[in-house]
Amino acid sequence: MKYFVLIPIVFPMIMAIIGTKVKFKSEKERNVFLYTTVILNLAVLIELFIQGEAFTIHLVKVSSFLDVYFKIDKLGILFSILASTLWIFTTSYSIEYMKHERDEKRFFIFFLATLGITVGIALSGNLFTMYIFYELLTLSTFPLVIHAESKDALYSGKKYLIYSFGGATLALLGMMILYSITNNLDFIPKGVVMGISYDKTLMLIAYMSMFIGFGVKAAMVPLHSWLPAAMVAPTPVSSLLHAVAVVKSGVFALIRVSYFLVGAQVIAEINGNKYISVLVVLTILMGSFLALHQDNLKKRLAYSTISQLGYMVLGIVLLNKEALTGAIMHLINHAVIKITLFFCVGAIYYKTHKKNIGDIEAIGKNMPITMWCFSIAAISLIGIPPTNAFVSKWYLALGGLDDKIIFPIIILLSAFLTAMYILPIVITAFFHIEENKDERNLDPSRKMLIPIITLTGIIVFLGLFPNVVLNFVKSIVAEVL
C-alpha cells in the first residue's frame, strides 16, 4: 500500500507515454482518454487525503542527500488537489480551444506529463526530490511555451530556460550549503535547523540562495521577465503557467524551504525575511505599475500575476500565523481567479481573434456570459467582498499589521492599482458604444463555457464560505508556527 502515493505522480506520465503510441480513431475517443486520466488522478488524491498521512516511501535512497522520498502531508495534499482540480477544467477548455492550434497531440502529451510532475512537487518528502521534479517541470512546460514554434515563441522559450535553470542552479547551491550544516533535507514542520549550531552568515547565504533560486518561478522582481514573454503560448498554457503549474510551484517551494526546512525562528535570527521583504515590495508594486501600461490582454494579466505573487511571498516572509494563512489562501484563491480570467481572454481571442483592450469595445454585448464571469473574477482580484480574494488579502493585511504598518498600506495601494488596470477592461467591454452593432452571440461552446462559469461560481462560493478551505489552511499553519 505504501506505493499508492506514487500513483497520482506516475499515472499521468504513463498515460502521456501511451498517448504518444496510440492512434485514436476519433476526437471523442481521445477526449475520453484525457478526461479519464485527469479525473482518476484527482480521485486517487482524494482517497489519499481521506486515508490521512500514513503514506511515505523512500523510492531510491543512496544517502541522506541522494534520497528520492515521497510523503503525504496537509500542505502537499492541498496543493496537489488544487492542481488536479484545475487540470480537469483546463482539459475541458483545451479540448475546444486547441482545435485552432497546431499539433494538438503533442500539446496534450506534455499537458498530462506536467500534471504528474506538479503532483510530484507537491508530494515530495524532501528538498532533493522536490528539486528533481522542479527541473522536470521546466523541461515538460518548455514544449508548451514554444508550442507555436514562431520566432517569438522560440525566443520566449529560450528565455524561460535560461531563467529557470539559472534559478535552479542558485537553489542547488543553497541546498548543498544547507545540507552541509544540517545533514538533513527532509520536510519537517518548523524545519530541520532547530537545535543545531550554525554560522549565521552561511545560513543566510543558504536561505537567500534557495529563496531567490526558487523565487524565479514565482516571478519575483527582478527575475520576472520570463513570465510576460511566455504569453506567446496558447491560452490554456498561459492559464497553467499563471494559475497552477509553474508560478504556484515556485510559491509552494518557498513555503517548503521557509517553514519545513529552515524554520521561521531561524529565518528571524538571520534576518533573512528583512532582505527578502525589499524584493517583495518591488514585486507587488512594479507588477501593478507595469500592468497599467499593457494594451495586450494576456500581458496585462501576466504583469498582474507578478504583483499578486508578491502578496503570497509577503505572507511567507512576515513569519506570523495570519500572514502565512493569507499567503496559502491567496495561493488557492488567485489560482482560481487567474485561470478564470485567462479562460475568458482566451475565449475572446478564440471567437474574435482580438488580443488588445482597445479592440474589445462593447464585446460584453456579444459575449455576455464570458464578460460577466470576467467581471466577477476582476472584482475578486481587487479584493472586494464577497469574493474569495478579499478573505486572503484580509489575512495578509492582519499579518502585515503584526509587523509594520507599511505592509498593509502597500496592500491597499496595490489593490487600488489593481482596480486601475483591471476595471478598464470591464468598462471597455460593457460601456463603450460600438458604431457598427453586431448582435451575434459570440460566447464559446459549452466545453469552454462550463469551466468558466463553474470557476466563477467557486470564486463567489469561497468568498461567502471561506471556512471550507480556511480551517484546513489554519491547521497547516498551526503545525509550522
Give an overview in words.
It is built from 20 helices and 2 strands. It is mainly alpha-helical. It has a domain at 286-481. Strands 1-2 form a two-stranded antiparallel ribbon. α13 (297-317) runs antiparallel to α18 (406-431). It is globular, with a radius of gyration of 21 Å. The two termini are 32 Å apart.
Task: Give a quick summary of the entry.
Helix content is 73%, strand content 2%.
Percent helix, as a range, is over 70%
- Mean pLDDT over the full residue set: 91
> What structural class do helix, strand and pairing data support?
mainly alpha
Inertia-based shape: globular
Spell the H/E element sequence. Answer: HHEEHHHHHHHHHHHHHHHHHH
Strand content: under 5%
Considering the chains and any ligands shown, give keywords for the structure.
single chain; 2% strand; mainly alpha; NADH_UbQ_OxRdtase; two-stranded antiparallel ribbon; 2 strands; 20 helices
Topology:
Blueprint lengths: L6 H15 L5 H25 L4 E6 L5 E5 L2 H24 L6 H19 L4 H19 L5 H32 L17 H16 L10 H4 L5 H9 L3 H16 L1 H7 L1 H21 L4 H21 L3 H32 L10 H4 L1 H15 L5 H14 L4 H26 L14 H19 L2 H14 L1
Antiparallel strand pairs: 1-2
